[in-house]
Design a protein that fits this description.
Layout: E1 6-9, H1 22-38, H2 50-59, E2 63-71, H3 72-81, E3 88-94, H4 103-114, E4 121-125, H5 128-136, E5 140-144, H6 151-157, E6 161-163, H7 166-174
Parallel strand pairs: 1-2, 1-4, 2-3, 4-5, 5-6
Helix pairs in contact: 4-5, 5-6
Length: about 180
């Protein structure tokens, strides 16, 4: 079994990938939030196997924390929609005023609020900002290829481990 007691997941994050200026990015965020709060929030899909992995991890004593760049109220609604909220010990996202939106800041906030040591945690995410956020907090990471990032992106960012499937993630966490 891995030494980590706390697992930090990222559902997905909205980052400026299109070279937008600050004002364009702000306008895009406003349009995104308008659509997302009414419709888009329910268009998410679970990765195959996550709905069985989360209860298994909690039954084995792992504490699962959500560390997302999504605004926290949206993250909570998504977890509730998929009936996954009961598996999360703590949910932390960005603030609607755009503060605490950097993944490193979000992870630091979690560590402080929960009085955790980075050595007891591992960040699980699908993009480079998840890995870089973990590194900024001296935390190991698992890059997952069943999300939006590529192996090249995750390895270049310095992921401690990279897995292709939810089952491979499960084995990495539980079978060590």
């Amino acid at each position: 079994m891995m030494k980590y007691q706390y697992l930090l997941f990222d559902l997905d994050s909205f980052r400026t990938l299109y070279g937008f200026s600050e004002s364009q990015a702000q306008q895009a965020i406003e349009h995104y939030r308008e659509y997302f709060t009414q419709t888009g929030i329910f268009e998410n899909e679970l990765y195959l196997g996550i709905d069985t992995l989360l209860p298994e991890l909690t039954s084995r004593g792992y504490k699962i924390v959500l560390a997302t760049s999504k605004p926290e109220p949206y993250a909570i609604r998504i977890l509730e929609h998929f009936r996954l909220h009961q598996y999360f010990t703590f949910i932390c996202g960005s603030n609607l005023d755009n503060s605490r939106r950097n993944k490193g800041e979000i992870i630091a906030h979690i560590l402080k609020q929960m009085e955790l040591f980075a050595d007891d945690c591992i960040m699980i995410g699908d993009r480079e900002h998840d890995i870089l956020g973990a590194q900024a907090n001296h935390m190991d990471s698992i890059g997952v290829l069943f999300g939006f990032g590529s192996r090249e992106e995750l390895e270049k960012a310095g992921a401690t481990h990279v897995v292709e499937t939810v089952e491979e993630l499960r084995r990495l966490i539980l079978d060590r």
